[in-house]
Amino acid sequence: MKKFNGKVLFLDRSDINTDEIIPAKYLTEVSKKALKPYLLEDLNLEGFNPQIDTRCKSVIITRANFGCGSSREHAPWALEVNGFFLVIAQSFARIFRQNMFNCGMLAAELPDKTINYIFNTFSGKETFIETILEKKEFIIKADDLIEKVNFVLSDFDLSLLKSGGWVEYADSKY
Amino acid sequence: MGKTIAEKIFDSHQIDNPSEDIHVIRLDAVFCHEITTPIAINDLIGRGKDRVFDSSKIKAVIDHVTPAKDSKTAMQGKILRDWARRHDIRNFFDIGRNGVCHAIFPEKGFARPGYTIIMGDSHTCTYGAFGAFAAGVGTTALEVGILKGVCAFRYPKTIQIQITGRVPDGVFSKDIILSIIGRLGVNGATNKIIEFTGPVVEKMSMEARMTLCNMAIEAGATCGICYPDMTTVEYLWEFIKNEYTSQETALKAYEIYVSDPDAQYDDLIEHDVGNLSPQITFGYKPDHVRPVKDMEGVKIDQVYIGSCTNGRIEDLRVAAQVLKNNAVHESVRGIVSPATPTVYLRALEEGLIQIFMDAGFCVTNPTCGACLGMSNGVLAEGEVCASTTNRNFNGRMGKGGMVHLMSPATAAATAIAGHITNSKLFKG
Ligand code: SF4
Predict the structure, then answer these.
(1) C-beta atoms of B138 and A95 within 8 A
(2) Of A53, A68, B128, B237, which cross-links B224 as Cys (Cβ 3.0–4.6 Å)?
C-alpha cells in the first residue's frame, strides 16, 4: 500500500482540470514514467511555478471540482510518478476521483468550511500531513500548529487502497 | 416505488455491491481508442494479465490522430492494432474505415437501449441517446472492463430535464445543450445522470440526441440519457431486424427502458427553449455561455466543423446550407472533418463536400484532429477558433488559443463573415 504522508502543495483555485494537471500533448506517451516532468505544467494559477513549487511535496490541498475535464487517467499518473499519492479537496470530478482510488491513491473530500479553515490557517506555511487510515484522520502540522481532521472513506475505497488498486481487486474477485 | 431508466439498467446488470453506494455492473460493450487504450494494454501486459473478457463485446478504433502524425502516435496505433489482432477483436476500425469513436460506433449499431457501455473517453455519455447507460472511465477501470467485463459505479442519481417549447428556426440541439450547461454550471450534474425528456427531445433525430447527450459531461454528468422510442428503433432497424418481427415489437421490448412515472429524481427541471437564440461560449469553461449576438463581431482565425458533437451528416447539411454560394472570409481558415467514412461518402453524394470546397474549406479525413489540439488544425498562440466541438478549455486546440463553441450553423456563418455572427437560418 502507498503512503499518504508528506509536505503539502496548496493550489488555491477551483475547477482545476486535467488539461492543467497534464496537458493533452503528452497523451501520446505510452508509459506512466514519461509524464514525470510535465505535472501541472499548464496550471493557470498566479505565481505558480510547477518545477519549483512541486519539489519535495507529496500532498495536494485544493478547492472544488478538482480533476474536471477529460477523463484521462494520465492526470493521477502524473501525480503518482511525482510521488503525490494524496489529494484533499472540497470536491472532485467523478472520473478523476475514481481514477485516484483505482490507482490505489487517496482522494479525500472535506467540507467547505474545513477547506477554508485549512487554507486560512496553513497556506503559506511549510505544512506537513500525516494520514492515519485506521482512524480516517489527517494530522496537519506547520510550525507549532497541529490540527486533526477526520475524513470519510468507504470500506470499498479502503480495500482498493489496500489491494493497490482496482485491477488486482477485480481480477481476484470477479 | 418506480425506477428511472438508469436504475432499471443498473438493477438488471448488477453483479456485486462491495460497499453501500458502489455497484459493480456487467458490461454489454467496451469501446476503445488509441489514446487511452494502449497504456491500459501495456499495464495489463506488465501485470501478466493480457486477456480480454469477450472479444465480440470489445470494439476498437484509431480515431484521435489518424493517419499517425509522428512516431509516438504511430506507436499508439500499433499497440492497439497488434492487440486487436492478437485477441481476434473483429470490430476494429483502422485507417480507411475509421472515424470519430462516438460517431462510428453508433453508426455500426453498437449502442442499444438498455446497454451498459464504458470507454476510456469522457464523451462516452453520447450513447445515452440510445437509452443506454454509457460512461467514460479512466484507464484502470477500462483495464478491468477489458479483462473482466465489469465496472464499478455509484448507484445513479438522476436529474430530469424536460425540454419544452417550440424550437425557433436556426436553433439546434447544440444551442440547447449549451444553454443547459450554462444553466447548470460545469459541476451542476456531477455524479449524476441527466435524463433528457419532453416534447423537444421526442421530436429530435438520433443525431440531435447524440449532440445533446455528448455534452452532458460538460455539466459534470456521468451520462446523458434519452428514452428509446420509434426514432431509436428506426435508426437501429438494419442491425436489429433479425431479432424482432417488426419495429413495433422492437419498440415494445425497448420500452421497458423508460422511467416509471413515480420514479424518484434528484431534481426536475423544465427547460423552455421557445425563446432560445443560438448560443456560444465566451471563456475557458463550457458553462461560459451567452447568446451569439452578444459576441457579434469578435474576429476569428479558424473555423472547425467536426467532432463527436457535430461532425455527423445532419451537421454538415446545416453548415453547407449556410455556406452555399458563399466563400470563407479571406482572414479565416475553414476546416471540416466529416466524423466517419459513411458521413464523408454521404456528404459527397449529397454535394455537400463540393459546397465546402467551393467555399474554400479544407476537408480532412474522419478524425478527432483539431478537437483536442493534436493534429489537423492546431491553433497558434493568440489565435481564435470558432468550433463545433465540445470543449473550450484553455489550450484545448493549441496552447494559447481561444475556442468558442457553437452550432455548425453559427460556425458556417462565422466562417463567411470572418467574425462571430448568427446564421441567416436564425430569424430572431
Ligand atoms: S472528437 Fe474531440 S471530444 Fe470527441 S472523442 Fe474526439 S477528441 Fe474527444
Answers:
(1) yes
(2) B128
